[in-house]
Amino acid sequence: MNTPFDQTIDDIRTRGFHNHRIEDHSATVSRGILRDLRATCEPFQRDFTAGLIREWLDFPSPGGRSRKLDLVAYDYVLLVPVFIDNVCPPRVARDNALGIDVDADYRSMLDRVCKAYMARWHL
To answer: Which among 105, 119, 112, 114 has a CA at the least distance from the CA of 48?
Structure first.
Protein backbone atom coordinates (compact mmCIF):
# COMPACT_ATOMS: atom_id res chain seq x y z
CA MET A 1 0.00 0.00 0.00
CA ASN A 2 1.27 3.48 -0.81
CA THR A 3 0.80 5.61 2.31
CA PRO A 4 1.44 9.32 2.96
CA PHE A 5 4.50 8.17 4.89
CA ASP A 6 5.91 6.65 1.72
CA GLN A 7 5.37 9.98 -0.04
CA THR A 8 7.18 11.77 2.79
CA ILE A 9 10.12 9.36 2.46
CA ASP A 10 10.11 9.89 -1.33
CA ASP A 11 10.23 13.67 -0.78
CA ILE A 12 13.18 13.29 1.61
CA ARG A 13 14.93 10.96 -0.84
CA THR A 14 14.42 13.49 -3.67
CA ARG A 15 15.72 16.38 -1.54
CA GLY A 16 18.64 14.28 -0.37
CA PHE A 17 18.26 15.05 3.33
CA HIS A 18 15.65 15.45 6.06
CA ASN A 19 15.17 18.99 7.37
CA HIS A 20 13.04 18.57 10.48
CA ARG A 21 12.98 22.34 11.05
CA ILE A 22 10.67 23.11 8.13
CA GLU A 23 8.21 20.33 9.00
CA ASP A 24 6.91 20.02 5.45
CA HIS A 25 6.32 16.33 6.11
CA SER A 26 3.26 17.27 8.17
CA ALA A 27 1.50 18.79 5.15
CA THR A 28 2.43 15.78 2.99
CA VAL A 29 1.00 13.35 5.54
CA SER A 30 -2.14 15.47 6.10
CA ARG A 31 -2.88 15.75 2.38
CA GLY A 32 -2.20 12.03 1.91
CA ILE A 33 -4.63 11.07 4.66
CA LEU A 34 -7.24 13.36 3.11
CA ARG A 35 -6.62 11.76 -0.30
CA ASP A 36 -6.97 8.26 1.13
CA LEU A 37 -10.09 9.10 3.15
CA ARG A 38 -11.67 10.46 0.00
CA ALA A 39 -10.75 7.25 -1.82
CA THR A 40 -11.97 4.85 0.87
CA CYS A 41 -14.87 6.62 2.61
CA GLU A 42 -17.75 7.32 0.23
CA PRO A 43 -19.70 9.68 2.54
CA PHE A 44 -16.53 11.69 3.16
CA GLN A 45 -15.84 11.91 -0.59
CA ARG A 46 -19.44 12.89 -1.34
CA ASP A 47 -19.34 15.68 1.28
CA PHE A 48 -15.96 16.87 0.04
CA THR A 49 -17.17 17.01 -3.57
CA ALA A 50 -20.30 18.90 -2.48
CA GLY A 51 -18.15 21.46 -0.65
CA LEU A 52 -19.57 20.56 2.76
CA ILE A 53 -16.05 19.86 4.00
CA ARG A 54 -12.73 21.05 2.67
CA GLU A 55 -9.01 20.99 3.24
CA TRP A 56 -7.08 23.51 5.25
CA LEU A 57 -3.69 23.32 6.87
CA ASP A 58 -2.47 25.23 9.91
CA PHE A 59 -5.76 27.11 10.30
CA PRO A 60 -5.60 28.97 13.62
CA SER A 61 -8.27 27.92 16.09
CA PRO A 62 -9.17 31.44 17.28
CA GLY A 63 -9.90 32.37 13.66
CA GLY A 64 -12.03 29.27 13.32
CA ARG A 65 -13.99 30.17 16.45
CA SER A 66 -14.70 33.70 15.28
CA ARG A 67 -15.99 32.31 11.98
CA LYS A 68 -18.14 29.78 13.86
CA LEU A 69 -16.63 26.78 12.14
CA ASP A 70 -17.61 23.36 13.40
CA LEU A 71 -14.17 21.89 13.90
CA VAL A 72 -14.27 18.16 14.51
CA ALA A 73 -10.98 16.43 15.25
CA TYR A 74 -10.48 12.70 14.96
CA ASP A 75 -7.46 11.87 17.09
CA TYR A 76 -5.64 8.68 16.29
CA VAL A 77 -2.21 7.54 17.37
CA LEU A 78 -0.47 5.74 14.53
CA LEU A 79 3.10 4.58 15.02
CA VAL A 80 5.07 4.42 11.78
CA PRO A 81 8.65 3.23 12.13
CA VAL A 82 10.97 4.97 9.68
CA PHE A 83 14.73 5.05 9.24
CA ILE A 84 16.09 8.52 8.49
CA ASP A 85 19.65 9.41 9.39
CA ASN A 86 20.81 11.56 6.43
CA VAL A 87 23.46 8.90 5.65
CA CYS A 88 21.57 5.76 4.59
CA PRO A 89 18.60 5.93 2.22
CA PRO A 90 15.43 6.73 4.18
CA ARG A 91 12.66 4.17 4.30
CA VAL A 92 9.42 3.23 5.98
CA ALA A 93 10.37 0.23 8.12
CA ARG A 94 7.73 -2.27 7.11
CA ASP A 95 9.99 -5.05 8.33
CA ASN A 96 10.59 -4.00 11.93
CA ALA A 97 11.28 -5.51 15.33
CA LEU A 98 8.32 -3.69 16.86
CA GLY A 99 5.69 -5.92 15.29
CA ILE A 100 4.02 -2.93 13.62
CA ASP A 101 2.20 -3.64 10.37
CA VAL A 102 2.32 -0.17 8.83
CA ASP A 103 -0.14 -0.89 6.04
CA ALA A 104 -2.71 -2.77 8.16
CA ASP A 105 -2.56 -0.12 10.90
CA TYR A 106 -2.99 2.66 8.34
CA ARG A 107 -5.99 0.92 6.74
CA SER A 108 -7.46 0.42 10.23
CA MET A 109 -7.04 4.14 10.96
CA LEU A 110 -8.83 5.10 7.73
CA ASP A 111 -11.65 2.69 8.53
CA ARG A 112 -12.10 4.03 12.07
CA VAL A 113 -12.02 7.66 10.96
CA CYS A 114 -14.62 6.86 8.28
CA LYS A 115 -16.88 5.15 10.83
CA ALA A 116 -16.51 8.06 13.25
CA TYR A 117 -17.26 10.51 10.43
CA MET A 118 -20.40 8.61 9.41
CA ALA A 119 -21.56 8.35 13.03
CA ARG A 120 -21.10 12.09 13.54
CA TRP A 121 -22.56 13.38 10.28
CA HIS A 122 -24.62 10.65 8.60
CA LEU A 123 -26.78 8.86 11.18
So the answer is: 114
Each as own residue / partner, the long-range contacts of residues 27-35 (CB below 8 Å, 24 or more positions apart, any chain) are 27/57, 28/4, 29/4, 29/5, 30/4, 30/57, 31/4, 31/55, 31/57, 32/3, 32/4, 32/5, 32/7, 32/8, 33/4, 33/110, 35/4
How wide is the angle at C-alpha 62 spanned by C-alphas 68 and 53, nearest 5°? 45
How far is CA 67 from each of CA 47, 57, 60, 120, rounded to the nearest angstrom?
20, 16, 11, 21
Instruction: Please compute the mean of the pLDDT values over residues 46-75 and round it to a whole number.
Output: 70
Task: Calculate ∠ Cα 3-30-96, nearest 5°.
Answer: 40
Q: Where are the domains of the chain?
A: 4-121
Taking alpha carbons only, the member of 112, 123, 110, 117 closest to residue 40 is 110
Which residues make beta-bridge pairs with 82?
A: 92
**Report field, pTM of the whole predicted structure over 0.85:** no
